[in-house]
Design brief:
heterodimer, A: Protocatechuate 4,5-dioxygenase, Chain A, B: 281 residues, Protocatechuate 4,5-dioxygenase, Chain B
Chain lengths: 115, 281
């Protein structure tokens, strides 16, 4: 095994460990490229998650709409973005939730980064 | 013989697609971003490229984790955009250039860059938004496209040096093509941003500015960093600067910056644009 990538605070690199762990969740989210599948998920979320074989941790994270929990369960941000789309959340909503702040405060932080 | 007329590097943030569709070019939020592009439009009108070779990264439209190529190249007659799941408007199909694709494949594999070859390939916002920014309004694309996709979804990613060298090999292959073609090389993505984790919202203006200042004249400055170092310096998605290094590699030799723009923020991202030409700096 190669030595682990450096520990970057607040960051989990999506590597082989995460890719194995998150496969079912990411596969479900990848299916949301299809509008029909998004409708199917909205119609019966439990059945849809069951069909993709989500783990209990993944099902719970989806139920809670909790981004950090979804990442911890192996979710990859590019596939999770498609789930976020169903939920009507944009990347500032996701950023605010993950950093424990309001959307307005998160957006203000982004603007401040340009100062 | 084919000739590389220049390299363009630009961000590909999805929100840009919505802003274009809503015609927000003069909106105060968007104006500093869109105002960067007219000099590039004038340059493109002048050099009139026949083909765009585009380094981009797929975000889960064409490739899933079941089979994830590190490098992939399109060899399709046309490239279609499709629903990515969150409501970005799609664009008309982009015509390909199959003979050039296969020439590049032969040359690149001959140089030990073993790319996955794709005769069907959906292209996502990372390709379509730069094309819409560079050739606005038409929908009838004035260039043929050859997409080259670099994995930034799943680590291990190819190193910055490897991406730069891939670009150099692409540049050599283009210039060995016997047709009289004018080719523009494009790299899309970045600059610094991070969407995931408690570090979401990370932007590093100091690094981006230095990266842009050095890219034309000293690309090895950035190419020497490890992937982990680049993620730390630019964010988990800022790593898309790999596409910029590949495009710079393809331009080859001595290069100079003709035009650039940089603006924070667009969505969660530091947006960058560069136009480079080959010449003594």
């Amino acid at each position: 095994m190669l030595p682990p990538l450096r520990d970057i605070p607040g960051t989990t690199l999506f590597d082989g460990v995460q890719a194995m762990k998150g496969y079912a969740l990411n596969k479900m989210c990848y299916s949301f490229n299809s509008a029909a599948n998004r409708e199917e998920f909205k119609r019966d979320e439990d059945a849809y998650c069951a069909r993709y074989g989500l783990t209990a941790e993944q099902r719970d994270a989806v139920r809670r709409r909790n981004v950090l929990a979804l990442l911890a369960a192996g979710g990859n941000v590019y596939y999770l973005a498609k789930l976020a789309g169903i939920l009507g959340l944009d990347v500032q909503d996701l950023g605010a939730q993950q950093t424990g702040t309001t959307k307005e405060a998160f957006k203000a932080r982004l603007v401040a980064a340009g100062g | 013989m084919a000739r590389i007329v220049g390299a363009i590097t630009t961000s590909h943030i999805p929100a840009i697609g919505k802003a274009i569709a809503r015609n927000l070019h003069e909106d105060p939020y968007w104006k500093p971003f869109f105002d960067g592009y007219p000099p590039v439009h004038r340059w493109l009108a002048q050099v009139q490229p026949d083909v765009a070779v585009v380094f981009y990264n797929d975000h889960g439209l064409n490739f899933f984790l079941d089979r994830m190529p590190t490098f992939a190249i399109g060899a399709a007659p046309e490239y279609r955009n499709a629903d990515e799941g969150w409501g970005i408007p799609t664009v008309p199909p982009l015509p390909g250039d199959q003979p050039l694709s296969w020439h590049l494949i032969e040359r690149l594999v001959g140089e030990e860059f073993d790319l996955t070859t794709c005769q069907e390939m959906l292209v996502d916002h990372a390709l379509t938004i730069p094309m819409a920014l560079l050739w606005p309004g038409s929908g009838a694309w004035p260039v043929r496209t050859v997409p080259i996709c670099i994995n930034t979804v799943q680590h291990p990613l190819p190193s910055a040096m490897r991406c730069y060298k891939l670009g150099q090999a692409v540049g050599r292959a283009i210039e060995a093509y016997p047709e009289d073609l004018r080719v523009v090389v494009i790299g899309t993505g970045g600059l610094s941003h991070q969407l995931d984790g408690e570090r979401a919202g990370f932007i590093n203006k100091a690094f981006d500015v230095e990266f842009m200042q050095r890219l034309a004249g000293d690309p090895l400055w950035a190419a020497r960093y490890s992937i982990a170092e680049l993620v730390e310096l630019t964010g988990t998605q800022g790593i898309e600067l790999l596409m910029w290094l590949a495009a710079r590699g393809a331009l080859g030799g001595e290069a100079a910056t003709v035009h650039s723009n940089y603006h924070i923020p667009i969505s969660n991202t530091a947006a960058g644009l560069m136009l480079m030409e080959r010449r003594a700096a």
